[in-house]
Specification:
The structure holds two protein chains of two kinds. Chain A is an all-alpha fold. Chain A has one domain. Chain A is built from five helices and no strands. In chain A, helix 1 packs antiparallel against helix 2. The longest helix of chain A is centred in the middle third of the chain and has 34 residues. Chain A is elongated. Chain B is 78% helix and 0% strand. By secondary structure, chain B is mostly helical. Chain B has a domain of 53 residues. Classes of the chains: A mainly alpha, B mainly alpha. Chains A and B meet through helix 1, helix 2 and helix 3 of A and helix 2 and helix 3 of B.
């Protein structure tokens, strides 16, 4: 592993994992289950106008996570072209899971706990357990991702040598 | 490659510029627009982007982690 670095591959995985985790959040919690929207604690979607305002902010959120995923794809492309970056499926999968965990943790702390612009389940009487479960899922993803990255630490073949 | 990038950027950005986010609801359009584009717009926009900005910064930090650690080592020496 002399002169090899895994950090560009991990960076790509973290960005793409966070982006894809953002899509899971937006698609499952905002659109399918409709448990919350971007500003649903400040502006509950109780009528069509309020629902459409929330829909606008959900759309911008999706656009932003799309950009983050696209940036991650660009970083992955650059990492794949480097001869000092080992092409490891375990490392990349671990980084994807860490990215998802980071998204849940950071979004949960900022949006749910500090700013309170929405909660995981806006319709629950007690919202805190849902918010804490979301944070716990973030921590669990971080641990699983870290273990996978660790298990790929001996992979040392760059992409150019794999293909 | 540059032409392809310009094409992709044009395809994705132009519809955002020329479309109204609330054009599908003619009856409540004015009310919805007034509740989006008010004095809280930039505040809401920044709040919505904040987690994504932080994660993107972490990603870029990771990508350049080796350069950053080398610079830090250089400063310490």
């Amino acid at each position: 592993m002399a002169n090899m670095t895994r950090s560009p591959l991990i960076a790509a995985g973290v960005l793409m994992g966070a982006g894809l985790g953002g899509f899971v959040d937006g698609i499952v919690l905002h659109q399918i289950l409709q448990w919350h929207n971007m500003l649903s604690a400040r502006m509950p979607p109780n009528d069509l106008a309020a629902a459409k305002v929330n829909m606008f902010w959900d759309g911008l959120f999706h656009a932003a996570v799309w950009v983050m995923t696209a940036i991650g794809l660009g970083v992955l492309w650059r990492a794949g072209a480097r001869r000092d970056v080992p092409w490891s499926g375990k490392t990349f999968t671990g980084a994807l899971i860490i990215g998802w965990g980071l998204f849940n943790l950071i979004e949960g702390i900022i949006d749910h706990q500090i700013l309170g612009i929405h909660h995981v389940n806006e319709y629950a009487e007690n919202k805190l357990p849902w918010d804490l479960a979301f944070l716990a899922s973030g921590i669990a993803f971080l641990l699983v991702g870290w273990m996978l990255i660790r298990s790929g630490r001996n992979d040392d073949v760059p992409r150019a040598a794999v293909t | 490659m540059k032409r392809f990038r310009k094409f992709v950027a044009t395809v994705f950005v132009l519809p955002l510029i020329f479309s109204s986010a609330v054009s599908a609801c003619p009856l409540c359009r004015a009310q919805v627009e007034s509740e989006i584009y008010n004095r809280n717009f930039l505040n809401n926009f920044f709040i919505m982007l904040l987690p994504i900005i932080i994660i993107t910064a972490i990603g870029f930090g990771l990508y350049h982690a080796d350069k950053i650690s080398e610079r830090l080592k250089g400063r310490i020496k």
